[in-house]
Amino acid sequence: MTFANAGTLGAVPGRRDELVAHLTKRSNLLEKLGCLTYEVGINDDEPETVFVVEIWESAEAHRSSLAAPEVQASIAAARPLLSGAFGGFRFEIVGSPLRD
Amino acid sequence: MTFANAGTLGAVPGRRDELVAHLTKRSNLLEKLGCLTYEVGINDDEPETVFVVEIWESAEAHRSSLAAPEVQASIAAARPLLSGAFGGFRFEIVGSPLRD
């Protein structure tokens, strides 16, 4: 069952766009780990937040990805850009009106 | 610029699965209105919530869709299933690590 993670990441003031650049850096690894969608965005009403929507082949694929050394290194590299504020939600996808 | 809406909809106790069925009913209209992705899901940790992630061609396409008569009718039909609790966030998509 595919799995979705919709999240908000607080950025250190003035460093939102660096965090966006970091999160959107091209990665072939994510696809190999089972990531189907990974959209990164901003909302000018919340100028110190980066938003992400991820869809994964399964909750397990998402969980496993977090342990991959390259992903761990990427998280470590992002740390100086993060304020520590996180939000969002996760769910198992059960359907879509766009497909049968 | 594509636009994302990640939302939580509170269901009337015991009616979550009806709300899921309503939201996942096949619609050709949504695509015509500019909806690119519409994933609906659940999380057993929050058994009275339905989760959605939508991606639209633009914020304007999403806004316009809400005024379409068929969408208005669908929202009205869902109303008895909704507790009135809503959450989530919206953002402009600026990139993805899965594409150049």
TrEMBL record, chains A, B:
PROSITE patterns: ABM. One of its GO terms (molecular function) is monooxygenase activity. Pfam families: ABM. Residues 3-93 form the ABM domain. The keyword Glycoprotein does not apply. Keywords: Monooxygenase, Oxidoreductase. This is Antibiotic biosynthesis monooxygenase.
